[in-house]
Amino acid sequence: MKKNYSIRESVFIKDSLNNSFMLFKDNNENLLFNKINIDNSSMIIDKDIMDFSATIDENNRLHLLYLNKSGELIYCTYSENAWHKNLIGRLDIQSNMYKYLTLLIHKNTINIFYATANIINLNLWTIEHIVKNIDNWQKHVVTNIFSDKTLDPFYIDQDEFGNIYLVYSGKESVHYNVYYLFFNTFNKKWAPNPTKISSSFVDNILPYIFVDTQNNVHILWYCSNNGEYLLKYKRFSSIGEDKFHWREIKLPKITGSNSHALMLEKYNRLNILYAERNEIYNLVSNDHGNSWILEDKTSIVNHPLYLVQYYNLSLNRLRHKINHYYGSIDKASISFYCDDFHEDLKEFNEFKAASLKGEKDSVKDDIKDSINLEEKENKAKSQAPKDELEKLKKDLVELKDQVKLIKKDIKLIKDKLQNIEERTKNRMGFLKIKK
Q1: Domain co-membership, 331 together with 369
Q2: Which of 4, 60, 142, 292 could cross-link 15 (Cys pair, CB 3.0–4.6 Å)?
Q3: How far is CA 98 from the centre of its chain?
Q4: What CATH number did the domain enclosing 138 receive?
């Protein structure tokens, strides 16, 4: 199976106030930041970007990590409509390669992951983990991986307690296998030896890991089989007959495409999304992964296909969990495949498209339409009954506006306090990494 490394990555974030943000690299390797449904403003955070990752914490604060072509590893937080940058350190990009930068936050703990290899020997890769402890940063070597010169992406997830789960593929003898590792948040240690998930007699590639709302761990990957690749699935459950054991569960026959299969949870139902040819398929399970059926499929309308790192604090965390989506980005607007959570984005995209179309009309027509619209509004107002119901509606609108203003004031105060805290940390010395 030919792996599709041309699939682009982006980050979508929706905070608890339903404000939506998007980060992605353009064709010139600029890192762009868009406030989608707020004012649709766009800004270039930095140029010549090699890799980046972003997330949001429980206090609605955006965090960003990126590596530029000067070797600078930069950590940012967003407040008061600006990104506040701090240099973590300089990486030796002349001697080493760095890939798959990943930022993970649980409460007040910041975790940074990446894979690195010396350019002299690109068959040996190392996954490193930098974690913040109080005011210091400590580095862990997670594992070493034998691979061809191109390494498959690794993926991580965490449970509600902050334990971290990692999956990757590495070469053993002549075949690739899928491995799993676990970081215990209480003793701050990685498991000393990885668990082999796949068979050793065939190639196993493109693994993906997902921890559901019940803290069950799921792994998807593709396995070679007589010239084609089939999707495989294993689950590690903390309850039931297979408690604390990896169990392989049979899926409908799914032949491999060239991208990762994804798992997510919506309305307490597990979903598997995968791309095949020019379509995205959606399998669902109503029994925690024991059985699966095809629910729907949709055509890929725009290329390239984006693998979107996804955060949505507006969702009920007891019923929904989504780490990644497949999506499309077109002129700074974003849409998701097999999605039913973003009617606001659909409406905004439709409004934006209509606005762009309207710009092509003549100025005379615009003025005429505006006059007609104003006349209609004035006529409607003159005909509107001045009864008690209208007064109640008006009072309700005013009350909603007041609530919005109060929320904005609270958010502004939070941002200012966090900014003061960040500046205090900067004066103390932002990062002191210990090995």
Answers
A1: no
A2: 60
A3: 20
A4: 2.130.10.10
Asked whether the beta carbons of 40 and 352 are under 8 A apart, the reply is yes
* 355 occurs within a structural domain: no
User: How many Cβ atoms are within 10 Å of 406's Cβ, its own excluded?
Assistant: 10
User: CA 379 to CA 14: how far, in whole Å?
Assistant: 39
412 and 287 share a domain? no
Sheet order of strands, 262-266 included? 262-266, 269-276, 279-285, 293-299
Question: Where does the pLDDT of residue 373 fall: very low under 50, low under 70, confident under 90, or very high at 90 and above?
Answer: low
Q: What is the pLDDT of residues 46-70, one digit of tens each?
A: 999 999 999 999 999 999 999 999 9
Mean pLDDT of 115-124: 96
* pLDDT score at 301: 84
Pair 252, 382 in one domain: no
270 with 324, same domain: the answer is: yes
Q: Same structural domain for residues 316 and 396? A: no
Has residue 1 been placed in a domain? Answer: no
Domain of residue 424, residue span: 361-435
| Of 346, 370, 389, the domain-final residue | 346
Between 78 and 364, residue with greater pLDDT: 78
pLDDT tier at 368, thresholds 50, 70, 90: low
Q: Which residues pair with 269 in a beta bridge?
A: 266
Rounded CA separation 34/22 (Å): 5
Instruction: Provide the residue type at 353 as one letter.
Output: A
Provide the number of structural domains found in the chain: 2
> What is the secondary structure of 383-433 as a DSSP string?
HS--SHHHHHHHHHHHHHHHHHHHHHHHHHHHHHHHHHHHHHHHHH-S--E
- Given 302, 322, 346, the domain boundary residue is 346
Mean pLDDT of the chain: 83
- In order of 146, 147, 168, 388, the CA distances from 151 in angstroms are 9, 6, 9, 68
**Nearest CA-CA partner of 331 in 97, 45, 32, 2:** 32
Query: What CA–CA distance (Å, rounded) separates 57 from 132?
Result: 15
Q: Considering only 175-179, 325-329, 376-380, which range has the smallest mean pLDDT?
A: 376-380
Average of per-residue pLDDT across 39-46? 85
Are 230 and 297 within one domain? Answer: yes
Residue 2 domain flag: no
Instruction: Write the pLDDT tens digit of every residue in 273-326.
Output: 999 888 999 999 999 999 999 999 999 888 888 999 999 998 888 899 999 999
| Mean pLDDT of the 165-184 span | 95
- The token pair at 411 is 């958010």
Judgement on whether residues 333 and 372 belong to the same structural domain of the protein: no
